[in-house]
Design a protein that fits this description.
With 466 residues, this protein is mainly α. The chain has 16 helices and 14 strands. Strand 12 and strand 13 form a beta hairpin.
Length: 466
């Protein structure tokens, strides 16, 4: 495989290469050359280890089959009850739609809309979009509204939280088992297998479909000679260094049209002014996310303000024949601990107390690192960002537990449960921190590191004598 040679002035001989085969790492902006076909299930950036979308057609077949199975399982999980409670001869069951309805009739429509989107609407849209696009592409046909469907898929995917819902069902059943007899129902068994199928489906990056679309002739792909299963050797330079801009929607790489800046990370006004349209998918491309640090910091401040009321205010109000009781997140953890369910107590504490706080601290550290040219190695910051991105979703656990408890504890005059405003505050914390993670651009960490080295070189080369 040829190595692209750089001229001394930093320009590259990209005229001899096909721009559609180039890709910029989404986390560190390293310029790579994408193989048309690979036997690897995952490809990784050689500098930061980021997962790069694979264009393996055989893997596309597996994703299509599992997406079909996941859709059937998902419909079963929606149609049947999750669990059944029996208390004093009175039974109570609920479905996922029944959980949303129970929140709605209590006037907690923000939580009802949130739970409906995370457990019903977004998972269905994700699976439907995968089936629509991959099924058509595998038949060698570009489906109508290809671009619009992929954009919907990329928008809803970070918000699909079926695995968190399943853990919420387990926690809820454990919590209520000391007050009522709990019987698992059909939907619970469907939820047991659905997260594993979705994990495989969601591991396939939608951005790869844009590249597959350009090489849609299945016979041509199948007849390609066996190319390497690693990235062809390219110089260790970023797309910005070569005056290229990467599309965050389809992974396309194009020459930067604006000449307002040539080195280093652009400022927010420069990033907005340098926007251009991607020729592949039509999305707006920016050298870096506009106002990334400012938006991240603003969202973190709002989340920090909501953090204390989210943990101190009651999230659940329970009324029984013995009286009423208000439960906060902390009191729920204490209840599990005293009842001997140490594992459940630890899970709720980590997901509801530790994760949101760690996200606030870690994102604040990353924003500081990207904004003030810290000496911290950029790989450390990038790995920390990935941990936040992958684990932050589990903070939604308590919201699902609250929603399921409200729907299940409905025994007329015997017992009932309603949500408190602490649940709304906690949901706001999770949404704000998750959105802050999406707004943060990890490439700024590498830009800051490169800028500090550039200043060091300039300082060492400056004259020290009179």
């Amino acid at each position: 495989m040829r190595r692209t040679r750089l001229k001394p002035d930093g320009a590259s001989d990209l005229q001899t290469m096909e721009m559609r085969n180039l890709i910029a790492c989404p986390d560190c902006d390293l310029l790579l050359s994408r193989p048309l076909r690979t036997g690897e299930t995952r490809m990784h950036c050689p500098r930061c280890g980021a997962s790069i979308a694979s264009t393996d057609m055989a893997r596309l077949d597996r994703v299509l089959a599992l997406a079909l199975a996941a859709m059937v399982t998902f419909l079963i999980a929606q149609a049947y009850p999750v669990v059944e409670l029996e208390m004093g001869g009175i039974t109570s069951t609920t479905t996922l739609t029944g959980t949303v309805y129970a929140l709605w009739v209590q006037g907690m429509w923000p939580l009802a809309v949130l739970v409906a989107c995370l457990t019903i609407v977004f998972p269905f849209l994700d699976l439907a979009a995968v089936l629509y696009v991959t099924g058509s592409v595998r038949l060698g046909v570009v489906p109508p509204a290809f671009s619009a469907v992929l954009r919907v898929l990329q928008f809803v995917r970070p918000w699909v939280m079926i695995e968190v819902l399943f853990l919420g069902v387990v926690v809820t059943a454990t919590k209520l088992s000391d007050r009522a007899y709990v019987t698992p129902e059909t939907a619970l068994f469907a939820l047991c297998t659905l997260p594993f199928m979705l994990a495989v489906v969601m591991a396939f990056e939608p951005r790869a479909l844009w590249h597959i679309r350009e090489t849609l002739d299945a016979r041509e792909l199948d007849n390609l000679p066996g190319p390497p299963t690693t990235f062809p050797a390219l110089p260790s330079v970023s797309a910005m260094d070569l005056r290229l801009v990467a599309c965050r929607t389809c992974d396309g790489v194009a020459r930067r049209e604006s000449n307002e800046f040539s080195h280093g990370a652009p400022s927010a006004p420069q990033a907005r002014a340098a926007a251009q349209q991607c020729s592949r998918c039509g999305a707006r491309m920016h050298p870096r996310k506009p106002d990334s640090l400012m938006r991240t910091q603003a969202l973190l401040v709002a989340a920090a303000i909501m953090y204390l009321p989210a943990n101190l205010l009651p999230v659940l109000h329970t009324v029984t024949m013995l009286g009423s009781k208000d439960d906060s997140i902390i009191s729920g953890i204490v209840h599990f601990w005293r009842s001997g369910d140490l594992a459940i107590a630890a899970v709720v504490f980590i997901a509801s107390i530790a994760f949101p706080l760690l996200k606030l601290v870690a994102l604040a550290f990353l924003a500081w690192t990207a904004g003030c040219t810290s000496r911290c190695h950029p790989l450390v910051g990038t790995k920390l960002f990935r941990v936040i991105e992958r684990l932050g979703r589990w903070s939604m656990l308590d919201i699902f537990v609250i929603a399921l408890t409200i729907a299940l504890v409905n025994f007329r005059s015997v017992a009932s449960a309603t949500s408190g405003w602490g649940a709304v505050a906690f949901a706001a914390v999770v949404l704000l921190t998750t959105t802050a993670t999406m707004q943060f651009d990890p490439r700024l960490i590498w830009d800051a590191h490169a800028g500090s080295h550039e200043r060091d070189r300039n300082g060492s080369n400056s004259p020290t004598g009179p």
